[in-house]
Amino acid sequence: MPSPRSPLSRLFTVLLAGALAGLVLAVAALPGGLLGGLAAKASLGAYAELPDALRTPAQPQRSYLYANDGKTLITTFYDVNRSDVPLAEIAPVMRQAIIAAEDRRFYSHGGADLRGIARALVANVKGGGTEQGGSTLTMQYVRNVLKTDPTRTAEERQAATEQTVGRKLQEIRYANALEKTLSKDEILNRYLNIAYFGSGAYGVAAASQRYFGKAPADLTLGEAALLAGLVQSPDEYSPIDGDKDQALARRGYVLDSMAETGAITAQQAAAAKAEPLTLHPTAQPNGCTAVAQGHDDWGFFCDYLRQWWLAQPAFGNTVKEREQALRRGGYSVVTTLDPKIQQTAQKQATSVYGYGNKRALPIAAVEPGTGRVLAMAVNRHYSLADNPAGQANHPNTVNPLISGGASVDGYQAGSTFKLFTMLAALEAGKPLATGFDAPAKLPTRYASDDEGNCAGKWCPANANPEWMDGYRMMWDGFGRSVNTYFVWLAEQVGEDKVVEMAQRLGITFRADSDAAFAKDDAENWGAFTLGVAATTPLDLANAYATVAAEGTYCSPLPVVSVTAANGQKVDVGQPSCRKVLDADVARAATDAARCPVGQQSAYGQCNGGTATSVDRIVGRPVAGKTGSSEQNATETFVGFTPQVAVAGIAANPDDSTDLVGSAVQAKVIDAVARVIRTAVDGKPVKDFTAPSRELAGDPQRPQPRPTPQPERRQQDRNLPSDLLRWLQGRGRG
């Protein structure tokens, strides 16, 4: 039952009734022709003064994020759960129901129904029932727009609902002006897209999904009548949050009203009233922690996209404006996320470590030549839910474990960084056939008192001397991951050139100490080639994708297209690429990268690899590199074909002293390889282009045996032993 009105409310109603009744009687006494002329003149003047929101609706709408098929919903973003639909996509019974419930004379009045206002005034003065407003759908639309217009101040929005004669007269004036300009169907469509239906649902599209889990085009007669009955008192009548009995009573009222207007027959009304209330409540996801059910792993990609969005000037001048655009702008975003690749990546990540394991295997997949991010997986739930005591980031976290940022600097990726040394050497004109008799331990120019030093000098060692030592070229040096070969090669070309190459290919130094060393002392970062700097799977995959694309670097991109609420494309979905390597240099590096994965280079110089199972798993041309940091604290593998690059790093994100151990390396290799296989499944087989003979060199020509100690480029540099140990951590392969 409706609650009784307070004496103050009744007194106000009487006063408002008196004022408006006088206005109604005065207007009714005017001659018809004069009344029409005055109305036309007034409405035209009023239209020119209409707020922009009434002339060009700019109501908040939720934005949709889809996978790369444009159909699979990842999540939505909104402040207000609302989405516009055209009138043709709203069931006819819904249109008829809202007119019967709220404004039976909608198609015959000119915006304000004077007879309806007078009838409501008389009823309200008498009391004894539900208070009636007498507002037409057009007047209600005006009120709804003005009270939710994001461009107006809070005071202006509040004034749009004040119970004053001035506000009511302004509403009538605006309604008349709209009716002179817009068609009835356009007004009805706008109303249905903005009306509040309770339970957080604004507009008929959101309401249809919220209450019945369906589109507004599929509403039945009974469902349409129930929704139409809610708008008078949405929170009170909502069958989810309010009173189901009152919701059913209102449904009955609407059905009877529809029968009285002739929209349906009395028999149809009776049948619909007899139907039980059957709800299928559907809550629209909001944000990255509310991704599609069963896919909370998508949240890490969603968060990466959101961070990308907040950096795009196309969506506003400030971060706040861009955030507001995402939540209120009604964008349709087709992302680069490939559900099939993502599913495999997530399966592989969790097969190595379970959700509750303190260790993690973050995996990223990138498309060469576009930078499109195809998958981001890790054995964690993207969730704000509490973790068990003592477990900082597992099984739940929202930290960017795959892409880095915030508190995540990344993880050491070991010998995968040897790629940057090889590229710098090739760019400097050293061919793949550059040879060196690699010793088991190589004394360097860095002073060290660390255990295992060579006469006070830092001397990195090969992890497996019997297999790694001896005369090596880039092919087998890379294939067997020979530390002493690549430390020597870095000294020949200059460590600063190696660091610059890594940065050129997108490696970002998020750790302050790494960034400082790269900026101020890169020429002395001797251990850089062994992968002692922190990186992420996304950075690493994209760096190798640059080589796969024959030297074209593309910024990581999480979107295919972005469409605004008005149907216009936003110019942000195009890859941002630039040439950073000569194509022949990239081809030469790729030729050597065939060796680690068990394939053969174009020049037949591969003679052993650290990840030979990849050839069997992928079953087509592939390249890649393993990486083990000091004491196997982390284990990494990154592989690529011309169509995809995938990287995975096994590590403990919360404790770098927790060593994952060498036993997990084979699992990491297997996991990444299987993601690659899924990514290329069904695509044409593409081979790598062989490098030029000039850049390959002549491996058959006898090579001079250089001395184990490379030529000093500058004076030895004394460093504190603790800092030196950190900087010169020995990569293993």
UniProtKB/TrEMBL annotation:
Key words of the record: Carboxypeptidase, Glycosyltransferase, Hydrolase, Multifunctional enzyme, Protease, Transferase
Region (Disordered): 685-733
Catalyzed reactions: Preferential cleavage: (Ac)2-L-Lys-D-Ala-|-D-Ala. Also transpeptidation of peptidyl-alanyl moieties that are N-acyl substituents of D-alanine; [GlcNAc-(1->4)-Mur2Ac(oyl-L-Ala-gamma-D-Glu-L-Lys-D-Ala-D-Ala)](n)-di-trans,octa-cis-undecaprenyl diphosphate + beta-D-GlcNAc-(1->4)-Mur2Ac(oyl-L-Ala-gamma-D-Glu-L-Lys-D-Ala-D-Ala)-di-trans,octa-cis-undecaprenyl diphosphate = [GlcNAc-(1->4)-Mur2Ac(oyl-L-Ala-gamma-D-Glu-L-Lys-D-Ala-D-Ala)](n+1)-di-trans,octa-cis-undecaprenyl diphosphate + di-trans,octa-cis-undecaprenyl diphosphate + H(+)
Matches recorded under Pfam families: Transgly, Transpeptidase
SUPFAM superfamilies assigned to the protein according to its UniProt record, in alphabetical order: beta-lactamase/transpeptidase-like, Lysozyme-like
Occurrences of domain Penicillin-binding protein transpeptidase (ranges): 364-665
Top-level lineage group: Bacteria
Limits of the Glycosyl transferase family domain: 73-258
Protein name: Transglycosylase domain-containing protein
The organism of origin for this protein: Micromonospora fulviviridis
Taxonomy of the source species: Bacteria, Bacillati, Actinomycetota, Actinomycetes, Micromonosporales
